[in-house]
Write a structure and sequence with these properties.
It is built from ten helices and 17 strands. The longest helix is centred in the middle third of the chain and has 15 residues.
């Protein structure tokens, strides 16, 4: 799962040379998008599996208004190369000076652009070509082993993911009686699904402050809250786990409106997933937050039972599976943006920008003016 730095830099260098050739943002037509969404199958059959690779061009466009003084932008670049995602090429155009850089701790890749003081309409447009596909744990097979240092790294606390105090106490209570790693992960997954809920009023994907959630008893939030809670609980009892930050690219093939991109514009389609390392199995896909999203939004009424026909197949499948209509950016926490004087980011799932010494609000995409779109290549 560790990014191949040399391969990335080689691709990035090629992309920079071709930057001037990038066209305007790529959008689905609304008619084509409607056809894709209407071709869904029966939701009760929700069961993502590895299959054919899908290829997308994903374009992020940032326009900064009312720029004053030093202006900078940072755009996430797909940083995951695995058996469920391939990061291929990255091209950009801008009226600023840009370079591809990589975080030294998590391997998170980004495009960093600096604009001249006199530039009144800074813009940058980045297109990444990726391939994605579904994934599902083979519970009968032996997965790839990780070295001890890597596993230790993914049990360490971060600013938003403490692993002591109330986090550890909550996890220990939840896993009472569980012996195997799989049983412990299942108990924590079930605890999150049962005790938390999707809160539509949460801004963006949520702040991911799991200690505050547990201390206040306010367990409502979105994916960066609920999946972070799962990850933090796992780490606190010695299960290596990590958040995977990304964006939905296309509708779900299984008929669930909440489990795919809802329109041609992907502004607001960011979604965080999770992974846990289980001895003998390797890294396994998890997404308890999407179970709560289906419960809250898939039907006109708020579904409160995981046994509901709409919820049960999702609750079962998302312990071990993901659908391949989603792109992973990175797995980074406490990320210091190069050249920024601002505080580190708790996670890097949205474009970021600063002007006049102030960071713009990435959760206000209309004021910040960024757009994300995806174009899928068939055949």
């Amino acid at each position: 799962m560790t990014p191949d730095r040399r391969s990335f830099l080689r691709r990035a260098a090629t992309s920079v040379a071709a930057a001037g050739a990038v066209s305007s943002p790529l959008f689905h037509s609304s008619r084509a998008f409607a056809r894709t969404a209407s071709s869904a199958t029966n939701p009760s059959l929700f069961n993502p599996q590895p299959g054919a690779w899908r290829q997308f061009d994903v374009t992020t466009r940032v326009d900064i208004t009312n720029a004053t003084g030093l202006t900078q932008a940072w755009l996430p670049v797909p940083s995951v190369d695995s058996d469920w995602q391939r990061s291929l090429t990255h091209d950009f155009s801008s009226n600023g000076s840009g370079q591809f850089v990589e975080d030294g701790r998590y391997g998170a890749r980004m495009l960093h652009v600096v604009f001249s003081d006199g530039e009144k309409a800074p813009f940058v447009e980045l297109t990444s070509r990726v391939q994605t596909r579904g994934r599902a744990a083979d519970w009968s097979a032996k997965g790839a082993a990780e070295d001890a240092a890597t596993l230790k790294f993914w049990t360490e606390p971060t600013q938003l993911l403490p692993t002591d105090g109330i986090v550890r106490d909550t996890a220990r209570k939840a896993i009472q009686g569980a012996r195997s790693d799989r049983d412990k992960a299942q108990a924590l997954y079930d605890w999150v699904v049962t005790n938390t809920y999707r809160e539509p009023k949460t801004r963006g994907c949520g702040p991911g402050d799991i200690k505050t959630m547990l201390e206040t008893g306010n367990l409502g939030g979105k994916c960066a809250d609920l999946n972070a809670l799962f990850v933090g609980l796992c780490r606190s009892v010695g299960l290596p786990a990590r958040d995977v930050y990304g964006v939905r690219l296309a509708p779900s093939a299984f008929g669930y409106k909440q489990l795919g991109a809802g329109s041609a514009s992907l502004k607001g389609a960011q979604h965080c997933r999770a992974e846990v390392y289980l001895r003998g199995l390797g890294w396994v896909a998890m997404d308890p937050a999407d179970v709560t999203k289906v419960m809250r939004h898939e039907a006109p009424e708020w579904i409160k039972s995981t046994q509901h026909p709409l919820v049960a197949p999702v609750n079962k499948a998302l312990f071990g599976s993901w659908e391949g209509n989603w792109l992973a950016w990175n797995m980074a926490h406490d990320l210091k943006l190069p050249g920024s004087q601002g505080a580190p980011l708790g996670f890097f799932m949205y474009p970021a920008a600063e002007t006049g010494g102030e960071r713009l609000d990435s959760y206000e995409p209309d004021a910040f003016r960024y757009q994300i779109s995806a174009r899928e290549f068939k055949g």
